[in-house]
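So, does this match?
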Amino acid sequence: QVRLVESGGGLVQPGGSLTLSCVVTGNSISAYHMGWYREAPGKQREFVTSISSGYSVQQGAPAKGRFSISRDNDKNTAYLHMNSLKPEDTAVYYCNARSAYTSMESWGQGTQVTVSS
């Protein structure tokens, strides 16, 4: 099973940008579909975006038009690039890795993103 560590969260003003990183250890990221989810206070965890092992991207409603995902297999890292941030983007952002072979999933511990002036 792989271990995921997110970083890059913090406080940002509305309209600002932030890039989150998800470093994977324990196996090569090339064998995993990578995704980002978020959980706002009092709400259920929701899908943000994902990138498959074959670089196919899917976007959830929160991501469309403002967020993008990328992966660097050489660095064993996935990224979430967020632009035009809004206060409603405030949440804990979680990285998810799903094996392309077994469908087993692993989650990171989450990183807090707060959008506020």
User: Anything to note?
Assistant: The longest strand covers residues 91-99. The chain has no helices and eleven strands. The chain has a mean pLDDT of 97.
